[in-house]
Amino acid sequence: MGDELETSARILIVDDHEDNVELLRARLESWGYTTESAMDGGQALEKVEASPPDLILLDVMMPHIDGMEVARRVKSNTNLPFIPIIMQTALDTTEDKVEGLEAGADDYITKPIEFPELKARLKSMLRIKRLQEELEERERQLLEANERLRYMSQTDGLTGIDNRRHLEQQLDSMFAHAKRLNEPLSCVMCDLDRFKAVNDSYGHQAGDAVLKQFARILKNEAREKVDRVGRYGGEEFMLLLPGTVLDAAVTFSERVRKEVESRTFTFDGGTIKRTASFGVAGWPHPRVASCDALVRAADDALYVAKETGRNRVIRFDGDAFNAHIAEHGSEQLGEKPKRPDGGERERPVSREQPSLADSGGTGELRP
Ligand code: GH3
Ligand code: MG
Ligand code: MG
Fold first, then answer.
1. Distance 137 CA to ligand 3 centre (A)
2. Is the pLDDT of residue 344 over 80?
3. Atom number of ligand 1 nearest to Cα 345
4. Are 198 and 207 within 8 A, CB to CB?
5. What is the Å distance from ligand 3's center to 309 Cα?
6. Residues 17, 67: contact at Cβ < 8 Å?
7. Which residues pair with 87 in a beta bridge?
8. pLDDT single digits (tens) 224-261
């Protein structure tokens, strides 16, 4: 691309004397360049904007808009790429050269023009332009790679929704925002019921297909650009619903639950029906003092949903929740309890991470 640009470049010759234009045009074309011309500053600016040339060979002294002004306007137009400007001037004082360079010229050549010198200066300016373009291209590629990395670091590879780390970051900022503006924030934890059986009966790939479809359902039911939907663990998902009070979050979850129940999941070689359980918690609530407490409350509610029969929505601190706790106590909520059927419910890792688990403080459910 380099040598190509330097020999086949399109050069705009700007001069108010037709003879000069013709002389330059003949020379430049004999060197292999493509040329265009403009007879005054206004015309030059129009041509530059309509189709930016690779270089401008610019006469300084022209009526109306002179070369200095053309240079200033071209260089201050941020929509234009880098276009080297070589000023050609009959004035040979230091002040003129300084003014031209300050106006934005990249180089200058004095009249009468020595053609070998012009040829050398053209080549050198076009080389700089090529290097500049290569730099821009590399920067563009770097930005693109960074964007891809950012996406990958925030996204769950299987389902394409937020991963847990990103979800937790979102939760932090949503919670802070909710508190600052005194707006409600709800958190829904949901988990496919008896999902292990899908893997056991139909294989892991079938399980993956079900997970993907489940994530799609959640994503479709959530509000675009408002709610966050992410994969919290294996077959456990979390939704963050800003500006949503607990009641509304329960209604929402009930709608999703019905949608899952009515859906037939497909995988390579078969179809299957599944249900899911939901735990819902919301801020403000006297027992939810932090975002960790909010997640824990939703997860406790999910736990009760599993314990009381699955395929249901349980609201933290609601009647069903409190009745279950009254009967069974709340100790079980903190640990990894053995289920009556011998299965072990996966507890969120946050429990086991002291930094998250020991947020402690008052007003939380667990002792
Ligand atoms: P429960 O109703 O109590 O939630 O029962 P369950 O079988 O859904 O729960 P359990 O936690 O016992 O099993 C979860 C299973 O999810 C076990 C694990 O192999 C499977 N799993 C976790 N991540 C993936 C995944 O990415 N793909 C597949 N196919 N399976 C997964
Ligand atoms: Mg499950
Ligand atoms: Mg599980």
1. 47
2. no
3. 11
4. yes
5. 15
6. no
7. 58, 108
8. 999 999 999 999 999 999 999 999 999 999 999 999 99
- Cβ of 47 closer than 6 Å to ligand 1, yes or no, is no
Q: Residue 111: pLDDT band by 50, 70, 90 thresholds?
A: confident
Measure the CA–CA gap between 277 and 29, rounded to whole angstroms: 76
pLDDT range class, residue 272, cuts 50, 70, 90: very high
The finding on whether 196 has its CB within 6 A of some atom of ligand 1 is yes
Helical axes 115-154 vs 164-181, angle rounded to 10°: 80
The residues pairing with 35 across neighbouring beta strands, listed in sequence order, are: 11
Of 91, 76, 11, 20, nearest in space to 44 by CA: 11
CA distance 49 to 44: 9
Domain residue ranges in the chain: 4-147, 158-334
From residue 218, alpha-carbon distances to 148, 190, 227, 345 in Å are 24, 10, 10, 22
Average pLDDT, the chain: 88
79 Cβ neighbours under 8 A, 6+ residues apart: 49
Handedness of CA 320, 321, 325, 326 (dihedral sign): negative
Which CATH number applies to 4-147? 3.40.50.2300
Please give the distance, rounded to the nearest whole angstrom, from the Cα atom of residue 234 to the centre of ligand 2: 8
User: Which CA distances in Å does 354 have to 108, 237, 292, 359?
Assistant: 68, 22, 12, 8
Residues carrying an active site annotation: 235
- The residues near 248 (Cβ < 8 Å, ≥ 6 apart) are 186, 241
Selected from 3.40.1410.10, 3.90.180.10, 3.30.70.270, 3.20.20.70, the CATH number assigned to the domain covering 158-334 reads: 3.30.70.270
Q: Is 191 in the pocket of ligand 1 (CB under 6 A)?
A: yes
Nearest CA to ligand 1 atom 23: 234
pTM: 0.72
Structural element, H or E, at residue 199: helix 196-202
The neighbourhood of ligand 3, an ion, using CB within 5 A, equals 346
Please determine, for residue 347, whether its predicted confidence score (pLDDT) is greater than 80.
no
